[in-house]
Amino acid sequence: MVDHRKLGRELGIFHSDPLSGAGLPIWLPDGAAARHAVEEYIRELERRAGYQHVYSPPLGRRDLFELSGHLGHFVDDMFPPLRMGDDELILRPALCPHHCLVYAARGRSYRDLPLRIAEIGGMYRSERSGVLGGLTRVRAISLNDSHNFCALEQVGAEVADVLRLTSEAHAALGVRPAGYRLSLRGPGGSYVGDDESWRRGEQLLREALSGLPYEEAPGDAAFYGPKIDIQVRDAAGRESTLSTVQIDFDKPERFDLSYADRDGGRRRPVLVHRSLVGSMERLFAYLIEVHEGAFPFWFAPVQVEVLPIGADQLPAAEAFARSAVEAGLRVRVESDGSLGARIRDSAKRKVPYAAVIGAREAADGLVALRSRDGRALDPLPVAVALRRFTEAVASRSPALLS
Ligand SMILES: [Zn+2]
């Protein structure tokens, strides 16, 4: 059974140090390179789907979280406030309060809706030290988040769109889907909002799920509304949640958000909270395990390792590496040790391709590719190899070249 903590350390994805604190992992260069590729892809997917990205700070004044209801209903999961003179600052437990302020930053009309405010942003949870481990449960979280402000009649289509985008992102990343879960209110929980709003939210989510397989989970709703959890299956076949979409009538009320409708009247928007792939931490814990460290080419930390057979081919290898970097690829030249050992080592570190350059390749402007699954491909002209690599990145193809 693959453990992302062990493999993540071996592959140089992340590091945990008691000095920096439990649940506060540090992303190492190779982990950061892979995460950067994934974040770029997610932002591009969202941009094409009409999302707008913002940056907002990971902490804010106490009043903001009193207004949002987090201090009233979520305080057990939050860090204690930081005192600053007469003020108190709070490490935010969610991005919604700031995104509500983005909505309220100027007057809105029906033409602005749906207004999709997205950010891969920092937030914090005061998880108990006993449950922390690797990237699965952390105290500092980078969430792929968005808050989509809609007219009531747009909510059904918006939720269906989110489910489609989530499937697309999951396919590109190699995430294995395991159906949907409708999370509802349960007895004993702490919730905000009136019964009528909860009933309407639930009905809208049921409509968006019609025709899809789902099960119900009473008691798993967010404190402000019902949600759909998009379930995934891990390498051991266990189910977990990365992605969610939630309906919220409460925050627009609390922040007194409104828009001018066609007839000039003021209406309240409905807030759809959604995450396509969840937090970067959870996502990578999952991806490391499900791929056993062998990430698809497009987000592999090092995509090509360039191996000159002898010292005479080092200039040709470095020239190829420079062209590959210019083409947007992540490559490394490795010239120490026997060729066999370097090829084995590259495959062990799950680098998708070794590009071998011997005397013949150097003379003819070729590279001989070996994939990490042990296949040797016919030598290709450098320009052809680079084109096939950049095409594989652009298409986010999960398969290696053949
Ligand atoms: Zn939210």
From TrEMBL:
Listed CDD domains: ThrRS_core
Alphabetized InterPro entries for the sequence: aa-tRNA-synt_IIb, aa-tRNA-synth_II, aa-tRNA-synth_II/BPL/LPL, Anticodon-bd, Anticodon-bd_dom_sf, Thr-tRNA-ligase_IIa, ThrRS_core
Ranges for domain Aminoacyl-transfer RNA synthetases class-II family profile come to: 29-296
EC number from the UniProt entry:
6.1.1.3
Which GO terms fall under molecular function for this chain's record? Answer: threonine-tRNA ligase activity
- For this protein, what reaction is catalysed? tRNA(Thr) + L-threonine + ATP = L-threonyl-tRNA(Thr) + AMP + diphosphate + H(+)
Keywords, comma-separated and alphabetical: Aminoacyl-tRNA synthetase, ATP-binding, Cytoplasm, Ligase, Metal-binding, Nucleotide-binding, Protein biosynthesis, Zinc
- State the source organism's domain of life: Bacteria
Q: What class of enzyme is it?
A: ligase
Instruction: Supply the NCBIfam families for this chain.
Output: thrS (TIGR00418)
Q: Which family does it belong to?
A: Belongs to the class-II aminoacyl-tRNA synthetase family.
Q: What is this protein called?
A: Threonine--tRNA ligase
User: Origin organism of this chain?
Assistant: Polymorphospora lycopeni
What lineage, starting at the top, does this entry show? Bacteria, Bacillati, Actinomycetota, Actinomycetes, Micromonosporales
The UniProt gene name for this protein comes to thrS
